[in-house]
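Example record used in the benchmark description.
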Amino acid sequence: MIFMVLLATLALGFYSLVTTSESLAQNDQKGARALGAAESGIQFMRQRLARVRIPPQTTAADLLTEIHKDLKIDPQLIGNLGAGTVGLANETISIPAEADQTIPTALGGDKPGFAVTITKVSPTGAGGIVCTITGHCGVGRNHRTRSVRLRFLRQEIPSSIFANAIAAQGRVSIMKGTIAGVSGVSADTIAGVMSTRTSAPAVAVSGGTLGGDIDVVGPGLVSVTGGSVYGATDPTTIQNNYVGIVEPPDFPYVDTSVFAPFATNTYVSGMTTLTNTRIPANTGTAASPLSFSGGATVQGILYIESPNVVKFGGSANIAGMIVFENKNTSAANSLTFTGNAQMSPLPPGAAFDPLRSITGISILAPTASVTTMGSTDSYLKGNVIVGNFNELGSATIKLDAGSIVAMDTANAITFNGKDTRFMSTGVLNRPSMGVRYTAKFVPAQGTYGELN
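Model output (structure tokens):
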């Protein structure tokens, strides 16, 4: 009897041990599957967030709204949500928005899946977000969860516009003159033109010589009635061989306000040496332009508030840069050179030291009409970013390490003068300040971690 009791006790002990071990094994298995679901979720969200596009003007306050706008129409995400939705409430994006719902990672069985929350990086979310993935496995009392977290940083997508000598959102009209590379420095083919205008003609060539080729965003957008392109004069040859169709590149958002603090002196009537100078709005009007008829010298930065109409006659010596406030439109703002413009490096001295780290800019006037009408050759170094650009002079403009970029969507650029020659485009000399692009999200190194 004693042996029977002992054996029964051992049997019960073994049963309890086996049952407990099986439960522990099932728990570990469900936990591992929940973690696997969370890992799948983090890879899935890396792909989805890499395809989100954040406009350059987006503030930290609007960041989640912009992300939600893209995610809720993402076909890959919607296709895996089933009846679920992408929700935004209380500064949190929830995927799925419905309680107790997941994105499944396998069918049937323990129903493994994951759910996602996206929040801004504390305290301001200035460019960063945190993506938390909770993996689920099992139902009822056997339900297990595991969570992982990864931080993502907002990263600008480099634009291809500065690979072109001339890039415009509106129409480019070539009527007269030569647009090419500088002899002995770069091939003529450097002088390519690109327009993202979607109505014809985006580029109209009626005369003159274009050394490079033409890129547009769709068929039938180029008109050739004269002149030459890439050495060809036959319109059919040009259309068949030297007109390309490209994806529309990203044009930047220009924030000129960051330059205003450098303009520490205010213009007063009679000034001809403009040292870190601010020209107040309405100093010049269409009826009464602010005219430097005898020429002027810019030292450091010339910051022109909008609206304004400014004309430089004679020789405009620019030892620095000109920035026109991004406000109003090119109908209200204009900058005209009736003489020549010559750029040179910043002068020595502590007054100009804060500007030395700014590169890639000669004229930054995204809502101004910029016109050159000189009879003496001009030289600019850095990018010319304007509302619209009009070359009407009888002299040559040489542009070093810079592109002409026009932001207006109607008539953007007109060449009806003599020569515009490029030493190199702005592709290796992009503006280092004041120019922002559409952004995507990339994982921040060293921020991945399990939460439980």
